[in-house]
Amino acid sequence: MTLPDGMTATFDDDDDWAEKAPEIVKVWNHSKWWMGDVLNAAPSAEAVADLHWSSPLLEPLETATVRKVAEAIQGDRRLDIPWSYHQRVVAALLPDDLQDFMLKTAAANDYRFVHLQELIQQWFQSERGRQLSEQRVMPDDKEPDDDA
Predict the structure, then answer these.
(1) Most buried in the list 19, 26, 36, 76, measured by CB within 10 Å?
(2) What is the pTM of this model?
(3) 96 in the Ramachandran plot: left (φ > 0), alpha (ψ -120 to 50) or beta?
(4) Nearest to 3 by CA among 36, 21, 18
(5) What is the 3-state secondary structure (H, E, C) of 92-104?
(6) Which of 59, 67, 77 is nearest to 37 (CA)?
């Protein structure tokens, strides 16, 4: 398939649409990964800067995000779920094994983004509860104050 040249995709007929649409969806689904990989593979910071200057459609903040996610989630950890799910677990600063668990859970259960967000929130709440419980436990070598 030849990608459309420019900002508009046109289709000759329904059959042409049926042929091109799945390929365009594939490009849509993979483009942020590809861009992150391109930026991470750049030979130097100057090469990235040159790419930004020569491509005015590249937003530095957006490219910084795709670089960070592509670097954090290497190819063997990328699942066939929306890129934004991967972005969310990276933004939550979760350990890699927990990121993988949550992404696999989202994929296996056909979660929507809101479900993944709830899963992350539940983990943070339980983790905070665990931390508070540990703080309440007194060390074995200390006796409680009689004055308390």
Answers:
(1) 36
(2) 0.75
(3) alpha
(4) 21
(5) CCCCHHHHHHHHH
(6) 67
Neighbouring C-beta atoms of residue 39, cutoff 10 Å: 20
Tell me how crowded residue 35 is: count the other CB atoms within 10 A of its CB: 16
Dihedral sign, Cα of residue 83, residue 89, residue 91, residue 97: negative
pLDDT in tens, 44-67: 999 988 988 888 888 888 889 999
Give residue 5's region: left, alpha or beta (phi > 0; psi -120 to 50): beta
pLDDT of 145 above 80: no
Residue 68: exposed, middle, or buried by beta-carbon count in 10 A (0-12, 13-18, 19+)? middle
In degrees and rounded to multiples of 5, residue 43 shows phi and psi of: -65, -20
